[in-house]
Amino acid sequence: AQKVTQAQTEISVVEKEDVTLDCVYETRDTTYYLFWYKQPPSGELVFLIRRNSFDEQNEISGRYSWNFQKSTSSFNFTITASQVVDSAVYFCALSEYVGGFKTIFGAGTRLFVKA
Amino acid sequence: ETGVTQTPRHLVMGMTNKKSLKCEQHLGHNAMYWYKQSAKKPLELMFVYSLEERVENNSVPSRFSPECPNSSHLFLHLHTLQPEDSALYLCASNRDGNTEAFFGQGTRLTVV
């Protein structure tokens, strides 16, 4: 069964601090996809990144970076030099093929960045 | 603007009312989804449509009835709802099930 665990319910940091959001997943499939989405107060989830299970290269995009480790089934997300605009709920998601691709989301981590 | 538009943005309805939520995308996507987001609960997948055919129905009560008349439009018809159905209802679409999804801003539903 698929499962995505975001153990951190809420994180509060001060602006310019680095922060890492954890994501641990469970799947029996060898082919799967992992995602991170950001949900700002306006409500819509915004796509941040997609990784397939065969690509373990870490990725950096500006202040965002992602660490994918299959050995620990983790796909963690780090924001460097956080800013107030980073305040949002962040969701990790897993998609695998079960008679069609099915995506399951983690419970989300609410990030507060204080000025 | 993500390309997925939901209307209305807010809805208050009584338990005996009938209303519909609308979702529209012109991104050329083949799959559309309804999710429910309640306070302090994970995002719950309700329905999936792929090429206008329903492929997933996650044990959603029959008081929620989806409709997908074409690949660009998705509706969620509501009737005789309960107060616990109050939540943010999000629509999403993607090209295929394993690609990134684009979400609408949601309809904040309150059942009184």
Give the percentage of residues in beta strands of chain A: over 45%
Q: What order do the helices and strands of chain B follow?
A: EEEEEEEEEEE
> How large is the count of helical segments of chain B?
0
User: Which regions of chain A have little confidence, pLDDT < 50, spanning 5+ residues?
Assistant: none
Please render the helix and strand layout as text.
The complex is a heterodimer of chains A (115) and B (112).
Chain A: E1 3-5, E2 10-14, E3 19-21, E4 24-26, E5 32-39, E6 46-52, E7 59-61, E8 64-69, E9 74-79, E10 88-97, E11 101-105, E12 109-114
Parallel strand pairs in A: 2-12
Antiparallel strand pairs in A: 1-4, 3-9, 5-6, 5-10, 7-8, 8-9, 10-11, 10-12
Chain B: E1 4-7, E2 10-13, E3 18-25, E4 31-37, E5 44-50, E6 53-57, E7 64-70, E8 73-79, E9 87-94, E10 102-103, E11 107-111
Parallel strand pairs in B: 2-11
Antiparallel strand pairs in B: 1-3, 3-8, 4-5, 4-9, 5-6, 7-8, 9-10, 9-11
Explain what the structure shows.
The complex is a heterodimer of chains A (115) and B (112). Chain A is mainly β. Chain A contains no helices and twelve strands. Chain A has strands spanning 3-5, 10-14, 19-21, 24-26, 32-39, 46-52, 59-61, 64-69, 74-79, 88-97, 101-105, 109-114. In chain A, strands 2, 5, 6, 10, 11 and 12 form a six-stranded mixed β-sheet that branches. In chain A, strands 3-9-8-7 form a four-stranded antiparallel β-sheet, with no helix packed on it. Chain A has a two-stranded antiparallel sheet with strand order 1-4. Chain A is globular. The mean pLDDT of chain A is 92. With 112 residues, chain B is mainly beta. Chain B has strands at residues 4-7, 10-13, 18-25, 31-37, 44-50, 53-57, 64-70, 73-79, 87-94, 102-103, 107-111. In chain B, strands 2, 4, 5, 6, 9, 10 and 11 form a seven-stranded mixed β-sheet that branches. Chain B has a four-stranded antiparallel β-sheet with strand order 1-3-8-7, with no helix packed on it. The mean pLDDT of chain B is 91.
